[in-house]
Amino acid sequence: MTPMRFSASIALLAGLTAIAPAATLTIEFKVPAEQAKGISESSLLLRRVDQTRGMFETVAEKNFPTAGFKETFKDLPAGRYVAIICTGKLTEIDDGNRVGAFRDKSTVMLGADSNETTTFTYKPFDPAPYKGETSITGVMKSTQGSPIVGKEIAAAVYDDTVGLYKMGKTTTDAEGKFEIGSLANQHTFMVVVGGKPVAEAESGGVTVDVLVAPGVGDVAPNFTYLNAVSGTSQKFSDHKGKIVYIDFWASWCNPCQAPLAELNGLFTKHPEWKDKVVVLPISIDNERDELSPRPDSCTASQQPHSHSHTHTPHQL
């Protein structure tokens, strides 16, 4: 009788657990010595794309006390990765006016057992093309139309390699007017208030009106909305003197439903809010018939209006 022979692969499977091949990725950020002056640190954010859920998974978030760095990651599963680097801290990545501002990103496909290197090279930003002898002019107003006096305002450009770079700034005068000069002619600049772009203006063009949303301590703008339960129009000013908690939502927005359910129980948890707080879920649905009924704790305030999925408290 011929003895039975087992293949090597079957024998291995019987005694061992297979280990999936892992990949290696090296990320290097080069900053030439002659350009590193003033750059005391740099940062890296490495993310893996979860294609099943359509989300990013953070693999590493690191800060280095040097102008550049070289970092190797081992035992990575195969897939698509996005590497983001910048000078300074990651929290400063959009500030184009920081010393030595630079940022970049790259997408890397890692196969099983692959060994890849991604290299970034620093390049200083040159604002010269945006400089000139013309200005942008305008008037800063509140949403109620009154001039905003003594507010700092800046003209900026956006560049992928640095973020938001402010070309110049000034303060609004007694009539809310402003003028920012030394800008290139016939170029569109971002108008920045409080660190955020709020409008666009062309240098050498017409005077622009810059409307600024209310901030903490400001009076909230008045508007009219439709009560989805009664079908009657109401004014936001009807709630003057109370704290108004606004939640924007839509009937087709699945992620909106859980926060709405939580809102429905707020007054049960906080009976002391009675006659002091108004919860106002505002829908962006175009038709009242598209809205489904909600529990009584919030339905009196569900109205179709405008959208942004945030919770915004206002003191009237």
Structure in a nutshell:
With about 325 residues, the protein is mainly beta. The chain has four helices and 20 strands.
Describe, in plain words, how this protein is organized in 3D.
This protein is mainly β and 316 residues long. It folds into three domains: 104 residues, Immunoglobulin-like; 85 residues, Carboxypeptidase-like, regulatory domain (Immunoglobulin-like), CATH 2.60.40.1120; 92 residues, Glutaredoxin. The protein has four helices and 20 strands. Strands 3-2-5-6 form a four-stranded antiparallel β-sheet, with no helix packed on it. A hairpin with a 2-residue loop joins strand 12 and strand 13. It starts with 7 loop residues before the first helix and ends with a strand.
Any idea how many domains?
Answer: 3
Q: CATH first level of the largest domain: which class?
A: Mainly Beta
Oligomeric state of the chains present here = single chain
Uncertain spans: 1-17, 293-316
Q: From the 3D structure, determine the CATH topology of the largest domain.
A: Immunoglobulin-like
Helical stretch tally: 4
Give Rg in angstroms. Answer: 28 Å
User: What structural class results from the helix and strand content?
Assistant: mainly beta
Report helical residue fraction: under 10%
SSE string: HEEEEEEEEEEEEEEEEEHHEHEE
Helices and strands in order:
Blueprint: H1 8-15, E1 23-30, E2 42-50, E3 55-64, E4 69-76, E5 79-87, E6 103-110, E7 115-121, E8 131-142, E9 152-159, E10 163-171, E11 177-183, E12 188-193, E13 196-202, E14 208-212, E15 224-226, E16 233-235, E17 243-249, H2 254-264, H3 266-269, E18 277-283, H4 296-299, E19 303-304, E20 311-315
